[in-house]
Design a protein that fits this description.
Elements lengths: L1 H22 L1 H6 L4 H17 L5 H11 L9 H10 L6 H30 L5
Helix pairs in contact: 1-3, 1-4, 3-6
Amino acid sequence: MLWRIAADAVLVLHLLFILFAVLGGLAVFWRRWCLWLHLPAVAWAALVMLNGWLCPLTPLEIQLRHMAGDAGYEGGFIAHYLLPLIYPPGLTRGVQMFLGAGVTTFNLLVYGSLIYRTWRHRNPTVS
């Protein structure tokens, strides 16, 4: 029971990390100090996706599931939990690169907007 709870906690942590990596740039509009948490998170998420690496949370969750007596699963977190919700079954390298590029592009747009707003605030006479 304890191992299953630990595995579920890792699952929730993993999902929260992914959400923060994708949407955390929006938190920077609210609190500027979030920038120092978000930039490493989005860099790590993009590197994992673009290089096809396995996030360390995935094997941890699988190991905890095995310790709980569950079967665990093959492949990565995205392929097991998220891809079936968004795409047809099967994580291809192309889809993985698309997701990594999407995270990077979205956050570049968010940070570009933030930089522009900051610049406009400091230079109000420039139109």
